[in-house]
Automatic annotation (TrEMBL):
The chain crosses the membrane at residues 12-36, 56-80, 100-125, 145-170, 199-220, 236-261, 282-305, 329-350, 371-396, 416-437. Belongs to the ABC-4 integral membrane protein family. It is a multi-pass membrane protein. The keyword Membrane applies. Residues 63-179, 330-444 form the ABC3 transporter permease C-terminal domain. The lineage of its organism: Bacteria, Bacillati, Actinomycetota, Actinomycetes, Kitasatosporales. Its main location: membrane. This is FtsX-like permease family protein. GO terms for cellular component: plasma membrane. InterPro entries: ABC3_permease_C, Macrolide_Exporter_MacB.
Amino acid sequence: MFTLALSSLRHRIGGFAASFLAMFLGAAILMSFAAMLDTAGGSGVDATSRETLTTMGAVVGGWGLLLVMFAVTSTLTLSVRRRSAEMALLRSVGATPGQVTGLIAGETAVLAAAAAALAIAPGMLGGRMLLELLASTGQVDESVGYAFGPIALAMGISVTFVAATLAALITARRAVRMNAAAALGAAAVDDRRLTKKRIAAGVAFLLLALNLAVVTATVMKGKGSDAMQTAGQTSIWAAIGLAVLAPALVRKAAALVAGPLERRGLAGYLTAQNLRRHTGRLAAVVMPVVLFTAIGTGTLVMQAVENDAMSAAGLAKTNEQKNIETLNFVVIGMIVAFAAIMLVNTLVAATADRRREFAQTRLAGATPRQVLDVVLLEGAVLTVIGVLCGTFAALFTVLPYSYARTGSFLPEAGAGIYLAIVAVAALLTVATGYAAARRTMRTPAVAAVA
């Protein structure tokens, strides 16, 4: 199966591009931050600089694993779904479930190894830029020398490989369950219900977020910026929970908007049908929108609330508080940028997978303009779903932290930040989907169907 995996990669380079990009970017970001741990272990590093560097390096590892796993899972799921009939045919000619799983895992392992190797150079550059940022803000002594060593390499390679492997195993579970007939049906209609395990996982993440939100509003009230230790995590856990439940959320939304959409002519009718029939594919697009909106809004508004609270109290920021602020901005910048890239990446992969669908629609009588209208409507609906879910997840951070710092659940700051994040999410989702669809339809309809 490993030999077959190598052959599959050679003949489907384009189909694996989205997953490869997710692994490459994840590994580069992880190595950049992990290099701070190598730097902290160097000789002549003072205690304050070492603490800052260690915090910067350690805080990203766990989140990096989760984010890379989600990014790879969303793109890998699209790739495997496109090949569901192929996987079922392998089963029908004698391949065992373990062999099919080994094929998917082997393909992913090769991609992960290549992505991690190519990420070393940008990881080194990113780590140096991060150290220069910390030195320029006075949080690390300018005499501290940069080091990129075994910790950065081990962390970047291992986390990327583990995340990719977990994503492959999760994706492979569905592929090995179906026979050929079921797989062919699944390729046409992807509206399967969530498993009990997936529902339980999503609910568990939401309950964890709720627990941390309660702790922030009660135990951490009156403890100043220390409340960030619990509040900062809540929007991430809530966003992950909602992302896990994304297919069900898309299905519920489709039921609500199907009627109004069908009254908007052919484009609206086709959009409603796609929302009903392809919830799995569309949920893969909603996931990065949720993460982008939730994490960006939660962390940036939380920092705005903290800045206002400090100003109202007439207090100057201590070095520790400056460290926390820089950490928030750097980490949130990394996470939001990664989520934005993955949103674009997933949209391009999902749209490219619809080349045959677009061609069949055009051959049935729809004009290219009508097909593009469908893509725009879908993008608008998915943006609304993702933004609403992301906003809900962000509230798990914003409301309890505002109460803990100001005594009021509704913060006075952050409206502009939220609107900017929503605007970026909408622009990325709609514009990327539209541009990818136009590019996909350059192929003549007859050639695309053939």
